Amino acid sequence: MMKEKSWMKWEVLLLLWMAYLLNQGDRQVFNTVLPSIREALNLTDTSVGLIATVFNLFYACMVPLGGWAGDRFSRKWVVTVSILFWSVATMFTGLANSVFLLIIMRSVATGGGEAFFGPANYSLLGQYHTDTRARAMSIHQTAYYVGVIVAGWLAGAIADYFDR
Predict the structure, then answer these.
(1) Residue 2, pLDDT score
(2) Contact between 120 and 12 (Cβ < 8 Å)
(3) Cβ distance 41 to 94 under 8 Å?
(4) Distance between alpha carbon 29 and the CA centroid of its chain, in Å?
(5) pLDDT of the residue at 10
(6) Are 38 and 89 spatial neighbours (Cβ–Cβ below 8 Å)?
(7) What's the predicted TM-score (pTM) here?
(8) What is the pLDDT of residue 86?
(9) Does residue 13 form part of some domain?
(10) How far is residue 83's CA from residue 164's CA, in Å, rounded to a whole number?
């Protein structure tokens, strides 16, 4: 039984690592293809700045609520629902045909979903990795860099292919 539990904490780390990779990759994809989005929607520097500002402002306001939800409800369910929410929101972001819709989808939908992910995600890691917490957190953090590197390159290559 103990071996199964020992393995399970690493399985949880792997699943949360993959989710965090997608979380950070999602942000990088948007930034990488922003020149194409800017051209397609005829966005100004001000509107591009507004998209980023509203996203970060909304995200910052929602993270404490995400922490409350992670304490109040099952963290597994908070993580699962947040991943589903931001995934659907990310898909619908591609349908935005105005600055207003892009701000709504990027900020409220995607930012809101991602804001609920973080607190429950880190809390779950701490719950499963009581004696290996620092190692688990450091391994988990590599998902940020891998997500940014891979998603940035891949999004750029895909954008180049379709912009021909």
Answers:
(1) 44
(2) no
(3) no
(4) 11
(5) 94
(6) no
(7) 0.85
(8) 87
(9) no
(10) 33
DSSP result, 2-54: HHHHHHHHHHHHHHHHHHHHHHHHHHHHHHHHHHHHHHHHT--HHHHHHHHHH
Number of domain units in the chain: 1
- Mean pLDDT in runs of 10 for the chain (164 residues)? 69 95 88 88 92 91 95 95 90 88 86 89 93 94 94 90 80
Considering the domain boundaries, does residue 111 fall inside one? yes
Residue 160 Cα to chain centre, angstroms: 24
Look at residue 66 in the predicted model and tell me its pLDDT. Answer: 94
Q: Is 135 within a domain? A: yes
Note every long-range contact of 83-87, with CB atoms under 8 Å and residues 24 or more positions apart, other chains counting.
Answer: 83/19, 83/22, 83/113, 83/117, 84/113, 85/109, 85/112, 85/113, 85/116, 86/23, 86/26, 86/110, 86/112, 86/113, 86/114, 86/117, 87/22, 87/113
* Residue 19 neighbours by CB under 8 Å, 6+ apart: 79, 83, 117, 121
Buried residues in 21-44 as b, exposed as e (16+ CB within 10 A):
bbbbbbbbbbebbbebbeeeeebe
- Output the six-digit token pair for 97: 């045909």
Q: Which two tokens stand for residue 54?
A: 């509203």
Domain of 143, in residue numbers: 22-162
